[in-house]
Amino acid sequence: MKRSDIRKILETGLLPVMMRLHKRLLEELVVSAFKHLYIKSSENKQGQEQLRLAVVQYLVKWVQDRLNGVAALQDAYDEFVQQHSHAVTTAERDRHVLEFAQELGSASGQLRGDRRALKRWFGFEAVSERFHRRISGAQRDVAFVLERIGIIFGAELKALPDVKQAKNHWRRIELEDLIKPMLDHGNSTVIRIAAFRSLATALRALPAELHEQSVADVTLRYIYRAALDRRQDIALQCEALKLLAEISPASLQSALNDRLGSTPEGDDLFVRRVALRLLGERLLDNPDLAGLLECVAEDPSPAVRQLLVSAGRPLLTRKFNERFT
Prior knowledge:
The protein is mainly alpha-helical.
């Protein structure tokens, strides 16, 4: 096993511009994954053919550890805010600010600079901004690694020769157990969208007969609610609809009826466009959905109606061929 082998796996399907954008994180992952997998392979005598799956397992662990770190940092910030608000003197407030700056990882040199800046600009607002930047950066890193997990694991599943092996690999990685806690409202939208996409990407790589049985009922219900909840972030609603299309055709049909059967104003048009594309992809297999095209014809948004022809074309083409050939 070489570092270049791990780097090649981590960069699976990654555009050059994204490689440059995430160069620091990729390098960190290559080094830490190599160290972790080198020790593990020495202990278990694993062969090279297991490397891709081992990298996925390591990335799952990395995400869990990073999220635990984010949660611990959030707890520390909440405690700092409480201590700062209860402080009586300026000296006491300054002490809490410097202690939290140190907890954020300020080096001794930076900490000396922070101490000198206390009388000028450094204080509660400055250290809070530093905390929020740290959290945002960690969330972006987690979102990127989640995307990598979906793509790398999907590539591994596609390479398997039969359904039984795909099912065993899915159970072994336990991707749903990783993703499910991230779908909670308490997580950032960035992480929740990345979690949806990661799960959907991996599911698409499974044989079709495994899609619905590979996701627990509680997860399916959450995805269904997210696809219908107009209060959610627009991107999240779209990703939920796409994921629903992969795992439950019956639930998707119900969701399409809801999303295309009503036309609220505002950004909902973006969700209806996604719903209409999904409808077009499924009309041949389920012609009963064709009634929804009449609803779309009355949609108040030209941006939605302009997709009507392309959505209905496959079904119309089939009917034409059946009649005239």
